[in-house]
Design brief:
This protein has 518 residues and is α+β, with helices and mostly antiparallel strands. The protein is built from 17 helices and 24 strands. The longest helix has 18 residues.
Length: 518
Amino acid sequence: MTVPDVTVITAVYNTMPYLTRCLTSVVEQTIGLDRLEVIAVDDGSTDGSSRELDRFARSYPGTVKVIHQANTGGPANPSNRALEIATGRYVFFIGSDDYLGPEALERLVAAADRYDSDVVLGRMVGVNSRYIHQAIFESTQAEVDLFTSPLPFSLSNTKLFRRDLIERHKLRYPEDMPVGSDQPFTIEACYRARRVSVLADYDYYFAVRRFNAHNITYKSRHLERLHCAESIMDFVGGLIEAGPRRDAVLLRHFAWEVARLLENDFLALDRPTQASVQAGVRSLAERYLTDTIRDQIGIETRVRLALAWHGELDDLLAAIRQDADQGNPPAVVEDDRWYADYPGFRDPRLGIPDQWFEITGSAADWIARLDTVSVAFEGTRALVVTARSPRPDLPHLASALKIVAGDVPAESTELVPDITGTTIRARILLAGLLTDLAPGGKLRLIQARIDALGTTGTAPLRGPRRTVPQRVVVRRGARLHVLTATTNHKGQLIVAVAPVTPRRVMARLRRRLPLGGK
C-alpha cells in the first residue's frame, strides 16, 4: 500500500455549513487524492455535521475516514484519536470551519521535502474579520528559530508537521484543556524540530470567524482562559530551562493570553471572579515574569501586570478604569525620563519600582496616543475620525502627524489646540480601504503616526467610550463590501472590510428574524 504524502486531520463539532467548504477545499487539493489521507473525528455533533462527514466518506472511499464519538468537550481528544491512525509522511491540522487555498498541500509538502523541514507554516489570512498575527509571514524563510523570530506569536496547530517527529517524541494534545490544547503540541514540535520553515508566497490557509461566533475560543470565559494560560506556561516552564529562550516564548503568553485576562471587560466580572483571575495572574507573574519580559510589554499591560502582582484588587481596577473611562493619564517627565502617571505610580503603599511605569524609550508612541471622540461615514466617500490628545502643545511637539487606516493614510489631518488639549480631525477615503483585499476581507487598525522628540511614534486610536458600530455598503466594481467602523477586543478603533456574500446575508437575516422567518 502506498503511503500518502499527507494526512489532513480535522476535529468536528457542529460546524455546518462551514464544514462543507472545509472538506471540499481538502479533497480538491492539487496534490491529488492518491497522495492524500483525510481523517475527520466527529465529536458528538448534533447539527448535521455527522451526516456531511459520512457523505464525504462515501464520495471519497479510501481517502476520507470518519470516526464518530461522544462529545469530549474540545478538539484535543479527537485530534489524538486521529493521530493514532494517521499514515501520511506529514500531518496537517485544519479547523473544520476553515479552508485551504487549492495548492496549499502540494506547496507545503514540496517545501518540507526541499528544505528537509519538520514543521512548515504557510501564510494564513483571516476571513470575516478574524485576526491573524502576520509578523511571521513577512517573507518566505527556509529556516526560522523559535526564540529569535515572531514564531511564538503564531502557535496554532494549522501547520504541516513531519509525522516521524510527532511519533518520535510522542507528541499529543493535553486532553484536560478545553481550549488552547494545540499550543503545547505546537510549541514542543517547534522546539524539537530540526528545521521550521515559513512560506509567505501564497494564501495557504483561510481562518474563518463564524458569523454566529460559536467557535469554542470565542465562547471561553475568564477562568477557563486563565486555566489555559496556566497550563501552557507551566508546560513551557517544564520544557525550556529558565533564561532568554524561555523568556522569548513566555513573552507571547504574557503579552497575549495573560494580557487579555486584564482587558477592559475585566471590569464587568463579578468581584469573586475578578479576585480569582488576579490571584492566578499574580501566581504566573511570581513564577515567570522576568525583567526582560516586562521591558518588552506595552505600557497598559505592563501596569496592569504590576498591579495584579503587587497591588490589591482595587488598585488593579483603578488602572483599568483609567484606560476604559478616563483615557490617557498624564506623563511625568523628570531628567529626560518619561513615566505614565497611572494609579499606583510612586504609591508608597505599593512600592512598585518606577521601571514598571517608564515610557522613556517610547515617549513618541505615548504622545501619539489619542482618544476617539467620534467616527462617522461621509456617505460612501470617506470615513471621518475625530480624536483628542490631552496635550495642548501637540502641534509644537509633533513636526508631523498622520492618521492611517492600516497602510492607507488619511487624505487630510487637521490639528486644533486649545487650553485643555488638541483636537485631531482626519478624513480617510473609502476607495483606499477597498484596495489590497484578501478574499475574506480585511481588518484595518486606525493609528496615529507622529514625528516627535527626534523619532517616529505610532499608537492605535482608542475607540469611543460608548461604541456604536458605524456601517456603510460600498460598491467596488461588480462587488459590494460592508465597511464597519468599530473597536476590537483591545478597545482600539478599527475598520473591518468584508465582501457581501449570500452566506453573510443569510446569517444576518437569521439573526434578525424570529424562528420561522416571520
